[in-house]
Amino acid sequence: MSAERSVHRRRTVLRAGALTGLGLTGARVAAPGPAAAAPARGTGYLVGRGLSDATGEVAEVGMMGYGRFDQQAAGLHTRLRARAFAVVDEASGRRVMLIVADSPMIFESVHRAVLRRLAEAYGELYTEQNVLVTATHTHAGPGGYSHHLLYNTTTFGFHRKTFDAVAAGLFEAAQRAHEDLAPSELVLSHGTLTGASVNRSRPAFDRNPKADRDHFPDAVDPHTTLLRVERAGRTVGAVNWFPVHSTGMSGDNRLISADNKGYAAYHWEREVHDVDYLSGGSPAFVAAFAQTNSGDMSPNLDLEPPTTPADFEHTRASGLRQYEAAAAQVDLPGVGLTGPVDSRLVYVDLSDVTVRPEFTGDGRTHRTSKPCVGASMAAGSTEDGPAFPGFQEGENPFWDAVSDSLVYTVSPELAQAQAPKDVFVPIGEVNRLYPWVQERVPVMLVRIGRLHLIGIPGEVTVCAGLRLRRTVAGIVGADLDDVLVAGYANAYFHYVTTPEEYDAQQYEGGSTLFGRWQLPALQQTAAELATALRDGTDLPLGPEPPDLSGTVLSLQPGVVLDAPPAFRKFGDVLVRPRETYRAGERAEAVFAGAHPGNDLHRGETYLEVQRREPDGTWRTVADDGDWSTRFHWRRDGVAASQVTVVWDVPRGTAPGAYRIVYHGDARGIAGAVTPFTGTSPAFLVR
């Protein structure tokens, strides 16, 4: 970090009037008040909170989520953060670590890397048996950090810098949570949030039995759960679970963004509690917004993909709804948690599970199979972001004919497990040549007092989640509301639908890789975990997945050379801001820049908006982690770069003189990277 960069630390906070003008009336809970109501107190826990930057590359890297080759990152809107909570039962000494990352997915590659770093730091305190790593599933994050090829196709292979940034950020958050352990009380509460999600796969949902459909009369899961951390009567941390896809930002967006759940966390931490992300150490408040069974839950209430730039405000509104529903529960008494902390994890080869009759629903034994990609998966979710042209959700007659005449004829066993899927790629066969998708997957169960979390490495529909929750609740004797699916956990294997939903072969069914009996196989595993947790017994770890770190392919070259435009030097201002702005207007400056991939500035910032204080010093009021800023990068010729820094002047901004500062890093002919800084002329906000 340069000396100039280090002195510009914060903070004057510019609030954007975030709660006004949005018409957020869907949350059927009371608005948050100034003080928390006294809960029924629980005792006996040490709890730690941690927060870190896990952003990765922001330019010339394929973005993960929509499966589009053209969606290459060209800048940064908000940084992606990892939030961790360590919980220790003082009576037994048992502990769990929950990490929630603003990432598209958690891959086995990252899971292994985080566990390895934790083992190096803490020995056997944290292992695969008690560390639950989940993703918020933003569709605006960088890809290229998996060791399985399918997820690196749109990124032209593995990206070491992004992988290292994600793994380091997750570990650092966990490390900070461990160091923050202190006597705390945990309070659990539940609420209802409507008007924030819609079922994007209604034809599949409607195939479910009445008992499932009646549980969700509006075809959505409105259940919002809050686990809050209290010290000396103050709420110092919170984890919220609510099922909705992070697809507020569109497939046409090119800026890295934490999407709706990232905004919800940012708003609670930064705009409400004035958390300074650049200060380091333990923040006063940490808020994680985690996923549950969000497989068929869309934030796009009109069932149309959003467009850019309207998706920015759409994403913010969705995140704000989730925040309001969570923050309102701080005023509810809730239940003070007591009781054990415990966890179990097993690996299951989902390509070869014999499912017992009590889980199949038809009284017969069935088997899963090698994974297959359905034609409807190639179509993408048309309500959130279509993928490849020429495919559609539901029936694809050409691929149906191929499946019936070729795939299922050659392999009747595959037909028993996968029909009526129109098989587009028998990816299990491709796996024999090179690892494209994961087959041996982790399934986990975590208990914190009365709260139970079922860690599933995929996207679980609400009815599939309901069946998993009922399975576990019935065995451990828990209230159904206190048993949640923790989706996108520890690895990734696409979707989980009920067998009835699978038959519709919408996008979610086509993406259920291991066939019609995948959910019953997971229920069977969850039942084994629940029984072991209830009885205090251990389970065999199961078939661990192979370490693929030595087989990754990296096809995209790194930055070779940076050069400024002719007759310019790095950091020069190419386009000056206007002389004056009013709150609500957009200030911007264009700089002679360099490739952002030379230094990811993890834990730092590419930009600062600074205000001149009465004594003449400049104080930072916004950086590249703030919602009000945008960092755009583009090539200018072969080796030159143009960087545009945008600041949407928030309402309520104090009048005065401001300037925009850009921090870049240029790679020279010999490969050395040299930091530089560009500063715009001052402008007035009136």
Protein architecture, described:
This protein is α+β, with helices and mostly antiparallel strands and about 675 residues long. The protein has two domains: about 40-345 and about 440-535, no CATH class; about 575-685, Neutral/alkaline non-lysosomal ceramidase, C-terminal domain (Immunoglobulin-like). The protein is about 25% helix and about 30% strand. It is built from 16 helices and 36 strands. Strands 1, 4, 5, 6, 8, 10, 11, 12 and 14 form a nine-stranded mixed beta sheet that branches. Strand 10 and strand 11 (about 235-240) form a beta hairpin. It is globular and about 75 Å long. The two termini are about 35 Å apart. Mean pLDDT is about 90; it is low at about 1-40.
Topology:
Layout: H1 3-7, E1 45-53, E2 59-64, E3 72-76, E4 81-89, E5 95-101, H2 108-122, E6 131-135, E7 141-142, H3 160-179, E8 182-192, E9 198-199, H4 202-205, H5 210-215, E10 223-231, E11 234-241, H6 259-272, E12 286-290, E13 297-298, H7 310-328, E14 335-336, E15 341-349, E16 354-355, H8 357-360, E17 366-367, E18 373-374, H9 375-379, E19 380-381, E20 385-386, H10 397-410, H11 412-418, E21 423-425, H12 427-433, E22 440-448, E23 451-455, E24 459-460, H13 462-476, E25 483-486, E26 495-496, H14 499-504, H15 507-510, H16 518-535, E27 573-575, E28 580-581, E29 586-593, E30 607-612, E31 618-623, E32 629-636, E33 640-648, E34 656-667, E35 673-679, E36 683-685
Parallel strand pairs: 5-6, 11-12, 23-25, 24-26, 28-36
Antiparallel strand pairs: 1-4, 1-8, 2-3, 2-7, 3-32, 4-5, 8-10, 8-14, 9-13, 10-11, 15-22, 16-17, 18-21, 19-20, 22-23, 27-29, 29-33, 30-31, 30-34, 32-33, 34-35, 34-36
Helix pairs in contact: 2-3, 6-7, 10-11, 13-16
